[in-house]
Amino acid sequence: MTGRIGCKGCRDGAELDFAFTMAFQPILDFTTNRVWGYEALVRGPAGESAASILGRVTPETVYRFDQAARVKAIDLAGRLFPADDATRLSINFMPNAVYEPAACIRSSLEAAHRAGFAHDRIMFEFTENEKFRDTAHVARIVSEYRRQGFLTALDDFGAGFAGLSLLANFSPDLIKIDMDLLRGIDTDARRRIIVAGILTVAKSLEIAVIAEGVETEAELETLIGLGATLFQGYHFAKPHLEALPPVAGFPTGSLAFAHVA
Length: 261
Description:
CATH superfamily: EAL domain
CATH architecture: Alpha-Beta Barrel
Number of domains: 1
Distance between the termini: 30 Å
Structural class: alpha/beta
Largest sheet: 8 strands, mixed, barrel
């Protein structure tokens, strides 16, 4: 991506010397039998892994990459998403790359306007696996994004540095339970107890929960039994490069998901 991406109060950073694009994976709502939204996942132009792209991001380019990735995701979603006012877009962002939350969201606001996205249809995910240099600063980012009308989500919940303290300090709209906690949950009583506890705490805090990384029918049935309603994972669809994938893997008798081939 070329061109100057910056704003007053933010650092432009060095130019990117590599290209990237996005793949999309659906997030499914089993209370409505609809696609709740799609997560935009960084990929190389030929489908190279996110790791191969992120490994090229340096401290000098992290701000420019973070901004460019947001704009790329929103622009593609504007072209690919169905013509409705409900399907959400989930974007991963790098909290350590944001210098001034109100100013650094400007390019995202402009891209959302071009794409016709209401702010409450865009969710910014920050991961528990990233060790934040300044947790108070991250709390300000989340607060500003929510003030602007965006959704916020804590990704990889249960796998990172601070766990429940992040949930208490940042008050996100959603959390995404880390896939390692869900793997084999149908045969592991300890995992069922932990996930049931997370769902109970989240419900009490009025925070929605996405179970990500679901890979088997048995995992899905167990999670439904525990009260989960939002799901993401290979059991339903793998990410498609610059496209919305068809969805499979629903329990027998479930309704067809809206706007899915």
